[in-house]
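Issue 218. Parser rejects a valid record. Input:
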Amino acid sequence: MSLPIVLCVDDEKMILDNLREQIERWSSGRYVVEIAQSGEEGLQLLDELVEDGEEVVIVVSDQMMEGLSGDQFLRLVRDKLPTTQLMLLTGGNNPHEKEHLAMESAGLKGHTLFHFLAKPWAEKDLFAMLDECINLRAGLTPA
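Output the parser choked on:
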């Protein structure tokens, strides 16, 4: 098994490239960043990683994608990897979308199924959300 993995899924290559660059900067070599351009591709990659014994610690997905939407994709990830932290990128300009998704995501033993980050995001906000995901995964309370 190699370094833990952060999987990023978005159908826009520019967004994926930005996520990869920023997450690699945040991780300082502590994590490997894998990317997929659809929910379906993300599930296939996830299956391969799990089969290879890799540890996927965070999955970041865009909400608006062709095929599987981000929340559908993340629910399937949650079924496969219940301790993996899930982050959903939302359009940011529709507060009702985030509210609806937050309500939809609540419920797994009272825990929210995923974290939300609005696009466009500030790098410091992404870093803070990634830190929170790692702390929650480790069983720590966020600062």
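Fixed in the parser; the record now loads. Strands lie at 5-9, 32-36, 56-62, 85-90, 115-118.
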